[in-house]
Specification:
Blueprint (H helix, E strand, L loop, with lengths): L5 E5 L3 H11 L5 E5 L2 H10 L4 E5 L7 H10 L8 E5 L5 H9 L4 E4 L4 H33 L8 H31 L4 H23 L16
Parallel strand pairs: 1-2, 1-3, 3-4, 4-5
Helix pairs in contact: 2-3, 5-6, 5-7, 6-7
Length: 226
């Protein structure tokens, strides 16, 4: 059973959080509320999130300061941040949002369909990365065992076949997602993330192919998938 992705919604106004939940409920993912920057940072200590929707104007720690803390933490620095703001102070204000590490900066009121589409792209990328890490972990176990499963060559061949099939499914989904991003002229950050995912898939496929019978006796290593 595929685990749902978590989406962090950060806004000091309960009515805004309720509106975001109504818009994103169709994605059928886990929506987590935070009513302040401090509360958001606390949630990020224990859970992994696919994307963060972050209000700019909040009392105390505002969105820019919250984003700065998120980007300084190794655990959370790669989580995409979409800034939401009810005001527009011009290009300088927008630039500050991107400089703080946001992948997008959306002014309220926003189009619900556009917001949902943008969030869904990052959820898909997150899910593909989770699948890739799972395949990498299985492959790493195989490599550490010298290419031999506990039960012998038959079990080893079976595991390799299962790994190859799973990886092929992820490769197919990643390719479809990349084509979708190209067709929709998606955000540069989303395109770059998809390209990074494809590079990791290519490396994992090469390592897996090297384990196939007759592929040679050289040592193959798999780097840690982040």
């Amino acid at each position: 059973m595929v685990q749902k992705a978590k989406i962090l919604l950060v806004d000091d106004r309960p009515e805004n959080l309720l509106a975001l939940e109504a818009i994103l409920s169709a994605l059928d993912q886990t929506l987590v509320r935070a009513s302040s920057g401090e509360e958001a940072l606390k949630a990020l200590l224990t859970d992994d999130f696919a994307v963060i929707l972050l209000d700019v104007q909040m009392p105390g720690m505002d969105g820019f300061e919250t984003a700065a803390h998120i980007k300084r933490r190794e655990r959370t620095r790669d989580i995409p941040i979409i800034f939401l703001t009810a005001i527009n102070h011009g290009p300088h204000h927008t630039f500050r949002g991107y400089a703080a590490g946001a992948v997008d900066y959306i002014s309220k009121p926003f189009d619900p369909w556009v917001l949902r589409a943008k969030v869904s792209v990052f959820v898909e990328l997150y899910m593909k990365n989770c699948q890739l890490r799972e395949q990498a972990a299985l492959l790493r176990l195989q490599l550490e065992g010298g290419g031999k499963a506990v039960g012998g060559a038959k079990e080893s061949a079976g595991l390799l076949a299962e790994l190859s099939a799973r990886l092929a499914a992820v490769e197919e989904q990643a390719e479809a997602l990349s084509k979708q991003l190209d067709d929709e002229s998606a955000d540069a950050a989303a395109v770059a993330t998809a390209a990074h995912l494809e590079r990791k898939l290519t490396g994992l496929r090469r390592a897996l192919d090297a384990l196939e019978p007759g592929a040679g006796s050289g040592t193959t290593s798999v780097s840690s998938q982040n």
